[in-house]
């Protein structure tokens, strides 16, 4: 046991884990890494263990968790094959870590450097310009004690704007060639760029957007449905990751 990473209050299943261990809750951010792991299981037989916590009780703000991720956000991935165990925080970094160390054939990535750059661009686009906006929509419409019309309008509009950016990409508006996925030549290839984006965007209904508003994004809606059919995606958002009451 590494004393710098674990303390007495660290759950035993975390302290005693072997190999990869995921601490998560099945939120959009948690689902990114859950899906990635499930995809790697289908590709290579990857195995891991997991601890599911309840972020509504602020478990992720306790000292045992902050030792692993000072930002106090799920998910956190711990690689116990490293000595000492190596924690990885931030979902995009976790996806890229798994891509580097678990996807030896770059099935979910790219060997071509320009395609790889495309994947990074779209992964970072959603991480920095999509998830924060959509997250704030959910906060100000569903969680905030005071409903602030300006905040709701601003973050709804910004989320619709970034949906529009994804629609431009997928529709081929400026290239003349519609795409099936965000990165890669031609119609693109399913990759970490899609995995890092889909769990948030598929929740547009939960975030309060209407069918009428989403009519502006037909290619985005098809992309959501296309990815939803993948067996690993279904498992990655499924009952196996549900919070046990």
Q: Mean pLDDT score, rounded?
A: 96
H and E string: HEHEHEEHHHHHHHH
Number of contiguous helices = 11
Report on the biggest sheet. Answer: 4 strands, mixed
Helix content: 40-55%
Radius of gyration: 18 Å
Outline the structure in words.
- By secondary structure, the protein is of the alpha+beta class.
- The chain is built from eleven helices and four strands.
- It has helices at 12-15, 28-44, 63-66, 91-102, 113-143, 149-171, 192-195, 198-201, 211-214, 218-228, 231-236; strands at residues 20-24, 49-52, 76-79, 86-88.
- It has a four-stranded mixed β-sheet with strand order 2-1-3-4.
- Strand 1 (20-24), helix 2 and strand 2 form a beta-alpha-beta unit.
- It is globular.
- The mean pLDDT is 96.
Topology:
Elements: H1 12-15, E1 20-24, H2 28-44, E2 49-52, H3 63-66, E3 76-79, E4 86-88, H4 91-102, H5 113-143, H6 149-171, H7 192-195, H8 198-201, H9 211-214, H10 218-228, H11 231-236
Parallel strand pairs: 1-2
Antiparallel strand pairs: 1-3, 3-4
Helix pairs in contact: 2-4, 5-6, 6-10
What attributes does this structure have?
alpha+beta, four-stranded mixed sheet
Task: Write a brief caption for the model.
The chain has 11 helices and 4 strands. It has a 4-stranded mixed beta sheet. The chain is α+β, with helices and mostly antiparallel strands.
